[in-house]
Every structure is written in structure tokens, then in C-alpha cells.
Q: What sequence folds into this?
């Protein structure tokens, strides 16, 4: 099932080129139907928090210059909900950075409250999965004590286009393209901390609520964006999320 939020916040299910409005995410159909191309898609979650893992792929750790530092536990940070941007958004290049980077990622959307859940029970708390672009002001990430500007500026988290349910999160390829050119390719089987372990770990100290979002880290190939660039994050079994930097 593909769960969307659209228009003024209506939930729906995508089937082919159609959107069927529903009562709540994945709920009963209301009978209203729209053409997918006619609706404005919104981020498919209204999270109280967005929890992100910094180093979850060995080849990305290597490219960031930390070859021997495979973490023993997940290195987490937060993005704030103001960072959310919708599929197709035009995101202004912010004035406080000269090094805006893309990081294509698999995002997990929580469906049921999670508190101290063991890894083997974690995935039943997941509503589904979507595509995320973890926009990062790389220069400010290096100069600032906390990554508030670097990670949580307005528009720094395009999310969508919809939530795909019933996926195996460790069996998905991820691609990022800039102006149609492939820049990142990874497979989720190569994550250092699989999704179930990440969610369980977070839930040991932070209660995860329905619609909270967890970003699972980026594979290698991160790089610069410039005004005018079109960025696309595609995750197998979900679809693709496209935005433009302006
Ligand atoms: Mg990231």
C-alpha cells in the first residue's frame, strides 16, 4: 500500500495514477478520488521529532575521512520538523553556507508508540518507508558546535512521495541523482545498524510516536549542490522524491 498526504492535509492511498482519500493514514476510503498528477503531495508524516543516524555505511565513513572508525553504537542527531519539505519543492540555497550537500536516505515512519522495544519486535511498530533527502550545510557542520543550522534549516528535509508499507527494509537499493546523473548508489543490506536495531536503540531512551521519522544514514557519494540543481532520491519498492535547489 502507498499512503500519501496531500492538499490541505488529507490522507490517501495511491493506486496507479489515482489517489483515493482515506480517513487517516491507511484508513477507510471516503469515496473521493483524485488524479495523482493534480494533487499537491505533502510530506507523508507530521513528526514530533526526526531522529537521524550519522554514520551507518562503511563507504560513507571512509569518504568522510574516518576509515577505521566503525561505530560501536549508532551516532544520532536530530532534525527539526520545520526542515520538512514536500515532494517537488523548490528549496532556496541558504545564505549561511557555501557547501550545501545532498544525502539520499531511506526514512522510516513510525506507526505505533515505541518505548524500549527489542530489535525482534521493532518492525511491527513501523507504518512504512519513504525517501528522504538529508540536506546538510557541510561547512557549518564542521564549524558549529551543534548541527542546528547544518541539518535543521527550513527545507533541509524533503520527504516523500508516499509511505510504502510491507517492505523488507534491508532489501532495498538507494540512488541519488543530481540533474539526472547518478551520484549515490547503495543497498540497505550494507547498513552497519539495520533498521530494527536502530529503532530499538532509539526507543531505549526516547519514546517514538506515530508519524515520528527515523533517517537511516546515507551511502557514499555525497557531494555539493548549487542553485538550479534538481535532486532525486529513489528507493527500491517506494519510488522517487525530486526537489530543486533555487
Ligand atoms: Mg544523513
A:
Amino acid at each position: 500500500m502507498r499512503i500519501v498526504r496531500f492538499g490541505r492535509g488529507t490522507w490517501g492511498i495511491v493506486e496507479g495514477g489515482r489517489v483515493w482519500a482515506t480517513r487517516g493514514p491507511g484508513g477507510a476510503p471516503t469515496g473521493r478520488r483524485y488524479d495523482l498528477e493534480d494533487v499537491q503531495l505533502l510530506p507523508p508524516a507530521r513528526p514530533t521529532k526526526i531522529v537521524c543516524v550519522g554514520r551507518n555505511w562503511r563507504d560513507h565513513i571512509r569518504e568522510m575521512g574516518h576509515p577505521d572508525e566503525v561505530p560501536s553504537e549508532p551516532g544520532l542527531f536530530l532534525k527539526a520538523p520545520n526542515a520538512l519539505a514536500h515532494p517537488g519543492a523548490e528549496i532556496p540555497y541558504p545564505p549561511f553556507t557555501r557547501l550545501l550537500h545532498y544525502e539520499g536516505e531511506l526514512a522510516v515512519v513510525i506507526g505505533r508508540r515505541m518505548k524500549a522495544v527489542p530489535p525482534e519486535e521493532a518492525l511491527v511498530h513501523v507504518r512504512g518507508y519513504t525517501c528522504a533527502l538529508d540536506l546538510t550545510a557541510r561547512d557549518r557542520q564542521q564549524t558549529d558546535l551543534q548541527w542546528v543550522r547544518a541539518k535543521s534549516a527550513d527545507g533541509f528535509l524533503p520527504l516523500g512521495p508516499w509511505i510504502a508499507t510491507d517492505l523488507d527494509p534491508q532489501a532495498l537499493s538507494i540512488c541519488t541523482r543530481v540533474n539526472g546523473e547518478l551520484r549515490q548508489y547503495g543497498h540497505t543490506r550494507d547498513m552497519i545498524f539495520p533498521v530494527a536495531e536502530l529503532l530499538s536503540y532509539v526507543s531505549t531512551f526516547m519514546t517514538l510516536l506515530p508519524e515520528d521519522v527515523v533517517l537511516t544514514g546515507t551511502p557514499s557519494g555525497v557531494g555539493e549542490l548549487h542553485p538550479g540543481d534538481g535532486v532525486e532520491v529513489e528507493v527500491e519498492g517506494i519510488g522517487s522524491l525530486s526537489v530543486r535547489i533555487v
Notes: Helices lie at 58-63, 119-122, 138-143, 148-152, 195-203.
